[in-house]
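note to self — DONT lose this again. spent like an hour looking for the file last time. sequence + predicted structure for the chain T wanted, 288 res
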Amino acid sequence: MHSGTETASMTPIDETSQMTSERRPVAPGSRETVFTVADAGVTYSGKLALADVSLEIYRNHVTAFIGPSGCGKSTFIRCFNRMNDLIPGAAVLGKVLYQDEDLYGKNVDPVQVRRLIGMVFQKPNPFVKSIYENVAYGPRVLGMKKDLDERVERSLRQAALWDEVKDRLKSSGLGLSGGQQQRLCIARALAVEPDVLLMDEPCSALDPIATAKIEDLMHELKQDYTIVIVTHNLQQAARVADMTAFFSVKLREDGGRTGILVEYDETNTIFTRPKDERTEGYVTGRFG
């Protein structure tokens, strides 16, 4: 068991070998494994919230987690960058390997993990700073100060935001529209050169036009990054994901609910030829 209160102080994951040399496009149709999850689960104050999850996440793929509310999708995605460590009473079970290294090993620095594996949250959360400083903040903290202007521009271009904000970089990020704020948060995550981008319901607070821009952006970003997304929007999963995992819930003896992985496969298979009747019931709208 990995305690959520564990404080690791060992050598960080090496930046050069794990980032620049490993973050590379792979041939179409190939499957290079980035994460290997074996018998993973999460408990909150001893209560099992998620159980027995095993799957692999592939490089330069978009992988979607779908399922009804309370099935553990967001809990699970937070296992990949140790965000559950920040929740009092949370503990992660099983193995979560990143490039064959145990993310919860005692030698692993959680701060370095979160640099390599960035996250964009459900609600846009720009800092109370200028657009420029929102993007520059992470690199500054990490000592990545060389060519900062170029880094900020590159990140904003990657997030498809540069042309909309290049003439007002000193203006507050809070003055942007909701969709622009979310793309600013994506640029902020990209500025520290992650390997993986986690996105927890990134479009749930956005209008359809802004949602379409984020989805287009995901298609572009997967050429250089591995993307994992939680979404309640089945149409969105069908549009953007290469692989899809369907989660559901089972009732515990104490009346609580535990999230379980029901089926994981290529997205087209999940939506057109699911192997489990529970998956078919969910994707066809019969329950959920």
